[in-house]
Amino acid sequence: MFYRGSVMVAFLVFVLGSQALDMLTTTATPKDPPCAPTVSCWCSSYPNTTLCSWPQPSNSTPTRYIATYRERH
């Protein structure tokens, strides 16, 4: 969903075998376009648990991240 004055960008699709996980989406205003984060993911109990982390730059404005999961067959 797009809102006036904002940009939504999907950053990462993680492929595991024949299945893919959309891992990260972010929304930002045109004044501060997001840079692609370095994301680390691991599946400790796939498909029940997939954990991802990334550093938040200290000088960045507050950013809202939404992680989504989708299986492809």
UniProtKB/TrEMBL annotation:
Organism: Nothobranchius rachovii
Keyword tags: Signal
Gene transcribed to yield this protein: EBI3
InterPro entries documented for this protein: FN3_sf
Record's signal peptide: 1-20
Name recorded for this polypeptide: Epstein-Barr virus induced gene 3
SUPFAM superfamilies in alphabetical order: Fibronectin type III (SSF49265)
